[in-house]
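To whoever is on call:

I kicked off a structure prediction for a single chain this morning and the downstream step that reads the tokens threw a length-mismatch warning. I double-checked the sequence; it's 244 residues and nothing unusual in it as far as I can see. Pasting both halves so you can look.
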Amino acid sequence: MTTGPAGRGQTPGLRPPRVRLVLVSDQPLVGDAVRVALESRDFLVQAMLWPRSRLDAAARRQVMAHRPMAGLVVGDLDDPRRRTQAAGLVSALPMPWLLLVNDPQDVAWGELVAAGLQAVVPTTIPLEQLVHTLHALMARRLVMSRADRERRIREWRADDAARLAEEQRMRRLSPREHSVLALLYDGLTVRAIADLTGVSEGTVRSQVKAVLRKLEVSSQLAAVAAYRRSLPVGRGGPVERRPQ
């Protein structure tokens, strides 16, 4: 988000009412920078802790006592659990919501749109444009077209269905096949896997063929890509080399 000079044109001596906003971020430093920038434009920002579980009635009352006019979610939300937590927040608090992220075109945001999110904008948005978008939200002016909303939700559901199907295929692997796939992901060749696990290269090749068949892919590269997608966020590096 880029900043510029404060807006002009206000009548001297008249101060418009401050805009009340709820802000929640999974990146505290980034969220704090956004809060400071918006407060410089006369927003009254209530910063929330990241909701790690569904808000109960008491928590909702506490937030709504602030009488917020809109909500702003800031962060990358790389972890699917965080996206689900953010979607729960959007659906639990009845106000227009905006998402500020690095990649506003990611299909994953369809989960939040389905929960009621009104707009997705990039973190590179100029401050004045962000302020304008928030005012449009509060005025209940349509920020995201119906066609765009439907497209985002449709693409997210298709992507989610494909992810679940891939997870089911991954569960077909035996412990030994899963270990072989992990070692392929770690960069080992068939010969190196055979040496490490104490079996013949032919046995490893048979295990690799079984992996490809069960994952319904045609190459080791595709199998390794599927394995990478199955890893928890933050564990994209080499896996532990421990044969089973």
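Update from on-call: the warning came from a stale cache, not from the record. Cleared it. Sanity check on the structure: The CA atoms of residues 8 and 139 lie 21 Å apart.
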